[in-house]
Amino acid sequence: METKSSIIFVTGGVRSGKSSFAERLAIEYAENEKADLHYIATAVHSDTEMQERIARHQQRRKKQKVKWNSHEQAVNIGELAGVFSKKDVILLDCLTVLVNNELFYKDQRQEMLELKLKRELIELSRSCRYLILVSNEVTYEMSSDPFVQNYCRLLNQLHYFLVQHAKEAYLVEFGIAKSKKGGKK
């Protein structure tokens, strides 16, 4: 990958404030670059809890004084690469849900899916100025379920790959973003 990466990786525990932090970061970059803001939503309206989470995220973005161009893409995110310009700021929320959708809904082999997602994420990052990726840390406590273990293993491999290729990487805990690579200290 090129040395001037456009990837900004934001991770943390569930409901740690990482999406809010990533949105603020995206807005800041878009304002600085005078760029359009895009939001790639990967969640699927699968149950009441997910519908409520989606609604909360949508309401929060509506309250912001910026225009978000929203794209709902639960799988095959690479298909969106042609939609963006080299000046755009993209926020993808979230990688954890995207991996779930690809792995469980489409029933793909883990090795093939890992390569596919890496290729699509790099393709997306090359189609814009900044690609901000939000993901969850899900392996603080490992499950004994082999399916969950495979999911966590795949997600960890993607996280490692993304941090290696990222311009900036953040860990968000309790609403506090800690820069681990690049970024603002």
Automatic annotation (TrEMBL):
Keyword Transferase applies: yes
Superkingdom, taxonomy of origin: Bacteria
Gene Ontology molecular function: any one: nucleotidyltransferase activity
Catalytic reaction annotation: adenosylcob(III)inamide + ATP = adenosylcob(III)inamide phosphate + ADP + H(+); adenosylcob(III)inamide + GTP = adenosylcob(III)inamide phosphate + GDP + H(+); adenosylcob(III)inamide phosphate + GTP + H(+) = adenosylcob(III)inamide-GDP + diphosphate
Functional pathway: Cofactor biosynthesis; adenosylcobalamin biosynthesis; adenosylcobalamin from cob(II)yrinate a,c-diamide: step 6/7; Cofactor biosynthesis; adenosylcobalamin biosynthesis; adenosylcobalamin from cob(II)yrinate a,c-diamide: step 5/7
Chain segments annotated as coiled-coil in the UniProt record: none
EC number: 2.7.1.156, 2.7.7.62
Keywords of the record: ATP-binding, Cobalamin biosynthesis, GTP-binding, Kinase, Nucleotide-binding, Nucleotidyltransferase, Transferase
Transmembrane segments annotated in the record for this chain: none
Pfam families in alphabetical order: CobU
Family membership: Belongs to the CobU/CobP family.
Function: Catalyzes ATP-dependent phosphorylation of adenosylcobinamide and addition of GMP to adenosylcobinamide phosphate.
Protein name from the UniProt record: Adenosylcobinamide kinase
Organism lineage: Bacteria, Bacillati, Bacillota, Bacilli, Bacillales
